[in-house]
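Thread: Newbie trying to understand structure tokens

Hi all, I'm a second-year student working on a class project, and my supervisor (Dr. K.) asked me to get a predicted structure for one chain before our next meeting. I've only ever worked with sequences, so writing a 3D structure as a token string is new to me. If someone could post the tokens and maybe explain what I'm looking at, I'd be very grateful. Here's the chain:
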Amino acid sequence: FLMERKTHVKINRKELMLAKLRKSCSCTPKKLKNFVMDFLPVLRWLPKYQCKEYIWGDVMSGLVIGIILVPQAIAYSLLAGLKPIYSLYTSFFANIIYFLMGTSHHVSVGIFSLISLMVGQVVDRELLLAGFDLNDDGPPALGVGSLQNDSQSNTTAFNLTIAGMNAECGKECYAIGIATALTFVAGVYQVLMGIFRLGFVSMYLSESVLDGFATGASLTILTAQVKYLIGIKIPRSQGHGMLVITWINIFRNISQANVCDVITSAICIVVLVTAKELGDRYKHKLKFPLPTELVVIVGATLVSHYGKLNEVYASSVSGAIPTGFIPPKVPHFNLMLRVAVDALPLAIVSFVFTVSLSEMCAKKYAYTIRANQEMFAVGFCNIIPSFFHSFATSAALAKTLVKTSTGCQTQVSGVISAMVVLLVLLFLAPLFYSLQKCVLACIIIVSLRGALRKFRDVPARYHVNKVDTLVWVVTMSASALISTEIGLLVGIVFSMLCIIVRTQRPRTALLGQIQDTSFYEDDLEYENLSSVPKVKIFRFEAPLYYANRNYFLKSLYRLTNLDPNLEVARRKKYEKKEKQHLKNGGDTTVNGLGIGETTLQLVPKQIDFQALVVDCSSISFLDTTGVNTLKEILKDYRDLNISVLLACCNPSVIDSLKRGGYFGKDFGSMQEMLFYSIHNAVQFAKDQK
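---
Reply by user tm_fold:
Sure, no problem. This is what the structure looks like when written as tokens:
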């Protein structure tokens, strides 16, 4: 039987687009109010804030995150190649802006190691091109004025005409100029992606790509911190292969290691790892995580200050961190042009991590987020702070998990965290003058435990899916051995190639009937299947399109043991020989063979089936080549008096076949060529003569 298709009303797309345009361009008080409330979601949920129920959890989680943020912000400044004050600015502004614009109740937005690394790589490259020395162990800068005019940098401040910056500008001033320009452009990209609804871009970053990228970048981060751990002075490597070059330089200069830094690093790592492991083991008994980083930083600062480690043992310290805020400054437009390409992967990675964490929290706590609004939120978390000497931000997994585990209910906790950072900015920052850089490196390395543990998951990942494991390995290797940006691009391209290859060479099978049922399955995979006399049932488990057309035909001919083109050619040759023999009228052929022997050589192959059923249940679409391929096998098999029947086609495949003329002009033979189940097609084939 042939089911009757519904008739769909044809939509006038031009009128539909005009109607949408009129609706979007119209301005009414209600629409304006909804726009403002959608743009600033805080206006919707804050008036409904249940203070008695939420305030304790928000205050507690906000304080804990703030306590964690301060040492992490100071530590991650090493990754970004900037002074610690800029990391504190970034943490402060990001929390305030996301509080106003974010739709997730739980994510923690601020400093993130991978984003800091990507910023630092661009900053280092541009400093090198501008003629600055990347050695960052010069005399520490003093006071607010030095943030704008770094005359005590390890290179002499000079008149920079590069990139349009004509004012006298030192290394630190130029570095933050690059970082703010990069951050501003990344934020603009994110806002534009939100306007044009390009959030679907994140779909091309699979879990394997993201995990591989994070692990490869973690190896790069770890490598960059080793020189601080052991207190050696080596140039900061740039360009491709940075990881290998850095390790070569480390081993060449290992004899210059600072014993004080090595001992301090060993003690800090032991304390941090032990505390983390105990915290993970007894987290169900602890109401909030242990502030181990803060304890280590305070203890190490006191020991360094009173032990005069910088003066006596030449241990590298953080230096002066000024209090207060630097006056805002517009990012340099000419610098934006230099970093416009670098800002694109930064924008995508920042958005993807934020949205994926937001969706994870929303699913866990049963609420919804708006991915497009998240793109606006993280975009403005980059654009606005870039005027206040801040760099790029993103949601961070570790802090988000801590936030949820300490009772966070809303983004009010983010405001509390921002207040803790503000307290440090206004009053406490100078107290960290004597803090050793090796302590900050220890905090960064220990924070990478989660990403580096992914290596332990490789066997389990391989057991689940070998292709995904290969994608992870390729992305991780490219991110670590080449560069983070190229690693991300390699991962995306390679994962897409894997999908293409899997559709180019999909599974194919001949089906047999499950005894005493109307169901059919793969003959090679299941026992006790019975073959259907005079009928071959072929399954192709992929869309049929130009890239896998040849594989479709080869698989069909191999499994049915019949190539219709060769068989037709053999028959024509046989007929030609027969006619020639009859014309000669002899008992022998030209070769001297007898008639019987010739017949044995050229007789057409005995075909053991009269109908071919193609199971189209796994064919999701057909392109023009796919339709022509089916038309080709229909014609070729008909020449051998074998009927071709299609079963289980979806509506889009049927429409493609109709448009391609597979069923003829009037679709009159459609009922004899198309069936809604394999069993119907088999029954029809059996009834044929």
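A couple of things are worth pointing out once you decode it. DSSP finds 28 helices and eleven strands in the chain. The longest helix spans residues 333-365. Feel free to ask follow-ups in this thread.
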